Amino acid sequence: MSALEPVRPDTTRLDDVHFDASPLTEVVLSVQFAPLAGLTTGHFGWYWKSTLTPEWTRSATTTSLPDQFEEFEEAGLWRASGIPFSFVPPDDPGRFQVYSSDDERAIQIQRTRFFYNWRRRALPYPRHVEVRRDFLAHLAEFQRFLSLAGLGALALNQWEISYVNHVPKGGLWSTPSDWSSILPALLGSHGVGDELRLESAVGEWHFVIAPEVGRVHVALQHARVASQDGKEVLQLQLTARGPLREQSGADLERGIQVGHEACLRTFIRITSPSAQSAWKRRQA
User: Fold this and answer.
1) 121-136 confidence digits (pLDDT tens)
2) pLDDT tens across 48-77, in order?
3) Contact indicator for 18, 279 with CB cutoff of 8 Å
4) Sign of CA dihedral 99, 239, 62, 233
5) Dist. CA 65–CA 88, nearest whole Å
6) DSSP label of 117
7) Spatial contact of 236 and 244, defined as CB atoms under 8 Å apart
8) Would 161 disulfide with which of 30, 119, 165, 259, CB 3.0-4.6 Å?
9) With the C-alpha atoms ordered 219, 220, 225, 228, is the resulting torsion angle positive or negative?
C-alpha cells in the first residue's frame, strides 16, 4: 500500500472484527464548522453548567487547533508535514475542555470545532456505535445551547475521527528493528548494513478513501508516555476526515461511519497477522 493509494472496500465484515487486547488508547470524533464569531469564554461556562450533567466535573482551556480541509484538486494532493500555520484572532477564546469524573471522556469546543474523546482508563473501548451515538447526542445538545444563547446554527463543513494506539516496549518489540514485524506494510525491511542499527523513526502516510470522499492519515512515532513514568511506546495514529457536502445530521453520521471503516480497514492491512493475534483479534 503506497501513499495516496485509494482505500477501497473489501470483503472483510468490519462490524464483526474485534480486538480483545487492543492497543487503542484514545478515540476522537469531531466536526468542523464555520466560525462562531460570537462564542466567548463566558459561553463555555454557561454551556458546561446549563447543558452537561453533574458527572462532567473538571474543565480547562487551551489553544485552538487549526482548521483542516481535505481537498482533491492537484494542489491538495501534496502537503507539508507537521502542524500547518494558522492565524489566531486576538479575541479567540481558545479551546474549552471538560472532563467526566472517571476521566475517560472529554468534550472540547472551539469556535470552529466540536470534539468528543474517549480515553482508556479502567474500562475497555466501547463499540464504535456507542461512541458515535454519544458524540452525536452531545453535539445535538450543543446545537440546542447555541440556539438558546442566540449564536445561530452550525454550518458544518467536515467530519473527522482519530484512533491513537500505543504498542509498548517489551511486548511485541524490544528494539526499533522489531517494528517491521508489527507494521510490515509500512516499514518493510529497513536494513541498511550491519554497521548501522535503527534507533528511532517517525513517518506519515496519506491514503485517499475512494471515490474521493475523504482521506486516512497515518502517523507513526517513537514516543514516551509522560503519564506512565516515561514508558517507551510505538505510537500509531490513524485519522480519517472528509468534507460534508450537506448540512444534515445524517450526512455527518455517514461520514463518521465511513471514516471508522476506513481506519479499521487500514489498521488491519498495515499490521501483521502476528500482531493482530497478540491483540486477540476475533470475529464478534
Assistant:
1) 987 888 899 999 999 9
2) 999 999 999 999 999 999 999 998 876 555
3) no
4) positive
5) 9
6) E
7) no
8) 259
9) positive
Which segments within the chain are labelled E, that is strand? 17-19, 24-33, 56-62, 95-100, 105-110, 113-119, 156-168, 202-209, 214-225, 231-243, 281-283
User: Three cell numbers at 96?
Assistant: 474549552
Q: Is residue 274 within 8 Å of 5, Cβ to Cβ?
A: no
Contacts with 249 (C-beta within 8 Å, 6 or more apart), sequence order: 136, 140
Look at residue 246 in the predicted model and tell me its pLDDT: 73
Indicate the burial class of 232 (C-beta count within 10 angstroms; 0-12, 13-18, 19 or more). middle
Query: What does the pLDDT read at residue 227?
Result: 77
Smallest CA-to-CA distance from 64 within 44, 33, 89 is with: 89
At 133, the amino acid letter reads: R
Phi/psi of residue 10, nearest 5 degrees: -135, -170
| Grid cell of 20 as nine digits | 480483545
Strand partners, 19: 281
Average pLDDT over all residues of the chain: 88
- As a whole number of angstroms, the distance between CA 40 and CA 93 comes to 6
CB 213 within 8 A of CB 258: yes
Residue 254: CB partners within 8 Å, gap ≥ 6? none
